[in-house]
Design a protein that fits this description.
By secondary structure, the protein is α/β, with parallel strands linked by helices. The chain has two domains: about 55 residues; about 80 residues, no CATH class. A five-stranded parallel sheet has the order 1-2-3-4-5. The radius of gyration is 16 Å and the shape is globular.
């Protein structure tokens, strides 16, 4: 059901780098029992298995990619574009996840390039992640980090 503000609820699940046909079947079985007209449900399987998920998911569930690059095409080995994501059946992409920030050193400026590209050049929606590391939380920097990340994302869409 919609919240008091009239906004729809949103539930997202990120499979990270986990996949098997058994997981796909279990996820789809569970999702087939969760239909609610006022809730958007989005799942993000690993890129290699997006098409498997799109082909088998319940109709009320949407697909997301876990990442994309800020260009339509080019010599960017291992990357995928928002246009490829859309063609594979995704309406969403997750950007700014904590692992991408820490393990792959994606900073606010780089993430803003990705978000700007996706929102200004495609009709793919963005799930923009924000959050602090454990070390930042323990040192009392949560508000500072979250504020910095949100400011970096601000544009015509926030």
């Amino acid at each position: 059901m919609a919240g008091a503000s009239g906004r729809r609820f949103f539930v997202g699940g990120n499979w990270k780098m986990n996949y098997s046909k058994a997981i796909l079947e279990k996820v789809n079985d569970a999702l087939s029992k969760t239909k609610d007209a006022d809730v958007d449900i989005v799942c993000a399987p690993p890129a290699l298995f997006i098409k498997d998920f799109v082909a088998s998911k319940p109709a009320h569930v949407q697909a997301a990619a876990q990442n994309c690059y800020h260009a339509k095409e080019g010599a960017f080995t291992g990357e995928i574009s928002a246009e490829m994501i859309k063609e594979a059946g995704c309406n969403w992409v997750i950007l700014g996840h904590s692992e991408r920030r820490t393990l792959f050193h994606e900073d606010d400026e780089f993430l803003k390039k990705k978000i700007d590209y996706v929102l200004n050049k495609t009709d793919v929606n963005v799930i923009a992640c924000i959050g602090e590391t454990l070390q930042e939380r323990e040192s009392g920097k949560t508000n500072e980090v979250v504020e910095r990340q949100v400011k970096a994302y601000q544009g015509d869409y926030f």
